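Hi X.,

You mentioned you wanted examples for the new student's onboarding notes, showing what a folding record looks like when two proteins sit in one file. Here is a clean example. The first protein comes first, with its sequence line followed by its structure tokens.
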Amino acid sequence: MTKVALFGAGGKMGYRLASNFRGSPYEVRHVEVSEAGRERLKSGLGIDAVSVDEALDGAEVVVLAVPDTHIGKVAASIEKQLKPGTMIVVLDAAAPAAGHLPDRADLTYFITHPCHPPLFNDETDMEAKKDYFGGVKARQHIISALMQGPESDYAKGEAIARTIWAPVMRSHRVTVEQLAMLEPALAETMCASLLVVMSEGLDEVVRRGVDRQAALDFLLGHINVLASVIFGEREGAFSDACNKAIEFGKPMLMRDDWKRIFEPEEIAASIRRIT
């Protein structure tokens, strides 16, 4: 069995991974520094956390399920204990892209991130429909990148990714640079910002007298049908009135140069702020 050291095992993300590793073809050693996290592992999953030295003894893969701001510090603290050929798995492109991983050509760096369950899906089980994050009941797609290491290690990393993000549908391979375009640029800088604007718009119509539940039902329903047309989920076309609203509305909401968020220097600046 492949020996895996899971750092941050009792945290929000690490706990999800620890749960999905159960029953897998991996021998997992769990590292958690906080007392609350260790108790969570023990009471929730029946897992005892171990010391760093015990976890790294013979480890072939090290999964860093820790915040972006801690990845560099954690990686540096264990570097000397990592044997050549060890794979480090990171769950986000920010820290690797910022150069926070050790300068070790003899280590493999694999990055993987979930797409999360899609807006349009065919889940019929209510638990799966309510699993918005994924990795529990709902199926999701995943994105991965081999930052450095032998090509044969990609399959090894992808197998781990399919385990920790299960249940998985499509598995996509991209470069580290492309993954950074997807997150933070596409998913956070663009999508999350626009969703916050939608929420603020909802608050504004409520402030102007519309019942909140009525406004929320109206907005979410329109997000669903409009997105289904925009992203080709169904055939259809917007009304002339809707197209006219978009023509005049987009310039009011978006700067002309907003697509520069995808420029390498802008992504680098965003990553520096995150990490």
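Then the second protein repeats the pattern, sequence line and then tokens:
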Amino acid sequence: MNFWTELSIIYANQKSYLDDLFQVYPTIPNGIREINSTIWSEVENAFHEKNNIKLIKNLLLLEKFPFKDSYVNFFRLDDSSFQRNPQTINRLAGMVYSMGLEKLFDESSEPKETNTQIGGKFNNWLNKGVLGVLPVEESVFLSNNENAILKGGDKKLTSFSQQHFSYTKDKGLDFVARFNGKYVIGEAKFISAIGGNQGTAFTDVITTITSDVQGAITIGILDGIPLLKDKSPYYSKITTDYKEQNIMSSLVLREFLYQLWDYEKKYINKRR
């Protein structure tokens, strides 16, 4: 198994992993979503009047519809569909009435899931100088051969990698750096559940590390349940199918980068 993957798994299963990871991916307790009082008053009126169209229309004005239904977004995008689909409106309204106003308010004001707010936390962590250098603009990055992290969003980092390293994937990157004269590109993900968007996030990491690039080392900066021993299909994949790839926790990233002067001798030649 890749040394850095193994080290990350040991860290996640034996040390104060979650306490330390909070420095990279801090989560802020979310208060309830603010409900517009005017809109909510209209919801209450429609509820008591049993005006189904008015009820659904006003609920759609809230940030969060009170329950998940595959047909809801269609009404958001096409106002004329309210009159053309009375049975669907009645079905949705029936579900609303069965909830009652109190439950309806609770569901509509439910806090956002933490996972939806994780984006950008990794870059914020980099901007604290935790890797020994701060991210710099492209002109500075290219002006010398010193240790450096390229500053920018995923589109900029991807464009740079396509131009300089023949990176061909459309998926955006989270990390482009140069340490000890070696270039590194990578994707960073914190995965806390199995399936859905989290499964897609895991696939994004795999797409990056298996990319055929020129002049750069690809890495997957992976945290969360994939590192928990024998507890998810993600763990199985990183320890079998992708066991020789550079998959590691953000918490060992610094050590990986500063040993890159000896990377080819230690890790690449060993695979040949």
